[in-house]
Amino acid sequence: GYGDHRDLHSFPTRRSSDLHYTYQQALEHLIEEKIIIYQAKKDKIKVPLDWVNAKVNKLIAHYKGFGDFEKNLISQGLNMHILRTRIKDSFLTHQILNKYVVSQIKVSPPEIDAYYNAHIIEFTSLAKYICWIAKSNKKSFLEKISDEINRRGFNKVKQDNKDIFFKMESDEKGLKKEVAEFVKNSPPGEFTIKSMDGAYYLIYLAGVVPAHKKFFSEVKDDIYQRIWQSKFTEKFNLWIGNLKKEALIKIYPARGKPQD
Fold it and tell me: Residue 248 to residues 118, 251, 259: CA-CA distances in angstroms?
């Protein structure tokens, strides 16, 4: 979030074009942070010293003592003054966003209902297939197991061959194409032998958990968060965009004249 202070000095190895894009993103983020803090100070928003001290003490409590804490700060190129400034800026950011963005966001029950109905497929779980599988490099071995299943029933054969059977539960997306085609078109109790990836597999379909729609009560909190986040992004971009228009921003490249 905008209270975080990201490390702008370490970028992953990328192509030069990607690195330039990452640099532009980091620069944009820095500009936004500066504008937000400036607006907070312009609005004369105050951060009580007790807030900063409490946050510092909470961070120190994670270490054996102040000495270890200070060593960690130094290893990150920080000191107490910089840390306290960042913590204060974080509180300023939080308060200014609450004032101009968060306070403007409202999510109503009808909006949540409408989202649920419009995305019903997304909130429907796929059918889950429960299979027992045996693997062998010899098809003849699995054919003998198949004959045993036909004569004695699967449960007895599995009981006598615990070391070769393993259970798998998955929806269609998690299955190989050959397996998915079999389970989708077979009733529980059916089995087959398939050749895949240089080996043979005996696949026994033990059961199917039908696809079902998730209850509204299960997903309403998630839907609320999605709508809220979407509104926050929209309102934040509008607010920060207006602040940028009002601000005089000069970007100094490595060489050359400043760019407006």
Answer: 43, 10, 11
CA distance 22 to 8: 10
The secondary structure of the chain in percent helix, strand, coil, rounded to multiples of 5, reads 55, 15, 30
Query: pLDDT tens across 137-182, in order?
Result: 999 999 999 999 999 999 999 999 989 999 999 999 999 999 999 9
Beta-strand ranges (E) seen in 50-198 are 124-125, 128-136, 165-171, 191-196
CB atoms within 10 A of CB 64: 8
Amino acid at position 249, single letter: I
Give me 61's structure tokens: 């409590």
User: How many C-beta atoms surround the C-beta of residue 51 within 10 A?
Assistant: 14
**Sequence-distant contacts of 222-226: CB under 8 A, at least 24 apart:** 223/112, 223/115, 223/116, 224/107, 224/112, 226/115
Average pLDDT score over residue span 51-72: 93
DSSP state of 126: P
Q: Which one-letter amino acid corresponds to residue 146? A: S
- Cα dihedral: 253, 254, 258, 260 (round 10): 0
Q: Chain centroid to CA 45: how far? A: 33
| Cβ within 8 Å of residue 202, ≥6 positions away | 133, 134, 135, 136, 142, 145, 146, 191, 192, 193
Which residue type occupies 204? Y
Q: What are phi and psi of 177, to 5 degrees?
A: -55, -45
pTM of full prediction above 0.85: no
